[in-house]
């Protein structure tokens, strides 16, 4: 009976561990699927690579799982100009992080910071939307973070999830008139 209990316990533990590992891996993938179109749209508007927008957001917000990402839609840890109050587990939380109406607003503000703040605006002048490594290193060198490994961590996320593919020019699909001509 003891052996049966031990085997059952080990089997249940293995199933839980496998489920947890699969769930942990699917969280970044679902984050990418949910927000990749927003990142691509912003890339085309601003020149900031979609891979950088998503890679930095995933790094800074644990793929949307951090407290400020969930409660303030703040994916980048951007500080605001005052105190923001939100409630977590029925407790009042005061923070200096900026609140956004949506994740898209957070993405747009990050791109604005990268293109309009003097500290970062030189990056869009000298880098293309296809050079995510240059962007990550440039953002780090320009003082975005204090960690000396930040850029390599962001680049590792971009490579792991193939976010650089989002920076490619979209394939052009034939318009209706071309499609009609091909059928004749």
Automatic annotation (TrEMBL):
Key words of the record: Hydrolase, Signal
Stretch forming the signal peptide: 1-24
InterPro entries, per database record: Glycosyl_Hydrolase_73 (IPR051056), MGlyc_endo_b_GlcNAc-like_dom (IPR002901)
Transmembrane parts of this sequence: none
Pfam families (UniProt xref): Glucosaminidase
SMART domains, A to Z: LYZ2
Ranges where the Mannosyl-glycoprotein endo-beta-N-acetylglucosamidase-like domain occurs: 21-167
PANTHER family for this protein: PEPTIDOGLYCAN HYDROLASE FLGJ
UniProt name for this protein: Glucosaminidase domain-containing protein
Organism: Mucilaginibacter pankratovii
């Amino acid at each position: 009976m003891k052996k049966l209990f031990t085997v059952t316990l080990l089997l249940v533990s293995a199933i839980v561990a496998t489920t947890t590992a699969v769930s942990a891996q699917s969280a970044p993938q679902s984050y990418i699927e949910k927000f990749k179109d927003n990142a691509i749209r912003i890339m085309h508007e601003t020149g900031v690579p979609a891979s950088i927008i998503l890679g930095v957001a995933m790094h800074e917000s644990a793929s949307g799982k951090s407290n400020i990402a969930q409660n303030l839609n703040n994916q980048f840890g951007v500080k605001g100009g005052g105190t923001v109050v939100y409630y977590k587990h029925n407790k009042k939380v005061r923070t200096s992080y900026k609140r956004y109406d949506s994740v898209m607003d957070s993405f747009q503000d990050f791109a604005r910071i990268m293109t309009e703040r003097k500290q970062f605006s030189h990056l869009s002048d000298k880098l293309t939307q296809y050079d995510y490594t240059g962007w990550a290193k440039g953002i780090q060198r320009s003082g975005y973070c204090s960690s000396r490994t930040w850029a390599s961590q962001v680049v590792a996320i971009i490579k792991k999830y193939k976010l650089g593919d989002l920076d490619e020019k979209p394939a052009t699909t034939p318009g209706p008139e071309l499609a009609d001509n091909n059928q004749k």
